[in-house]
Amino acid sequence: MAASSIQKRTSAMSADWRDRMSKWWISWGVFVAICFLAAAIGSWFTADSVNSWYPTLLKPAGTPPAWVFGPVWSTLYFLMGTAAWLVFRQRSATSVTAALALFYGQLALNVAWSFVFFGLRQPGLALLDIVALLAAIIATMTNFAPVSRLAVWLMTPYLGWVLYATYLNFGIWHLNRGAP
Taking the domains of the chain in order of start, what are their residue ranges? Predict the structure, then answer.
């Protein structure tokens, strides 16, 4: 009887573990999908201007070739979604509401930048948005820190890229002021 009881208990624990792992994977997928949804919305605003308007602009030194942006942003959205998921997983141990609200806020500012820069073709206004985005990313990382240090590290490349994008945005605005 003892062997049968152990086998039943082990089987129940194994099923519970599989159920928890399945929920983890699904929730991780949802967070990554939310980030890629934001990317898709941003690219919708970008699509027309990136082929017509953007190539006509003067750009600052260090502007990467156009093909770099897709792989970089895809990697960053993947890392961002994973970071938010790591924080979400800690919701039973601590309150993560503010941290995730800031995360979604910075994601909205990210999408808004694409709309303002490419959709409205307003680099000066986009510069204001990207500065607010930087502040929101820093606030998000600050709120992620007590919950998950790994989440902060996963957000670090995003912060670095947005700092670089701020330089590019400023340069484009500065070099093209007064251009039609």
Answer: 70-180
Is residue 168 within 8 A of residue 59, CB to CB? The reply is: yes
Question: Using an 8 Å Cβ cutoff, are 155 and 169 in contact?
Answer: no
Collect all residues with Cβ–Cβ distance below 8 Å to 76 and sequence separation of at least 6: 157, 158, 161
Q: Are 135 and 106 in contact (CB under 8 A)?
A: no
Q: Say which residue the tokens 């938010």 belong to.
A: 84
What parts of the chain have a pLDDT lower than 70? Answer: 1-22, 179-180
Task: Give this prediction's pTM.
Answer: 0.87
CA–centroid distance for 33 within its chain: 11
Q: Based on C-alpha coordinates, what's the Rg of the chain? A: 21
Contact 134, 163 (CB under 8 A): yes
Name the DSSP letter for residue 72. H
Q: What is the pLDDT of residues 118-137, one digit of tens each?
A: 999 999 999 999 999 999 99
Burial class (CB in 10 A: 0-12, 13-18, 19+), 144: buried
Lookup: tokens for 32: 């990554």
Count of other CB atoms within 10 angstroms of residue 148 = 21
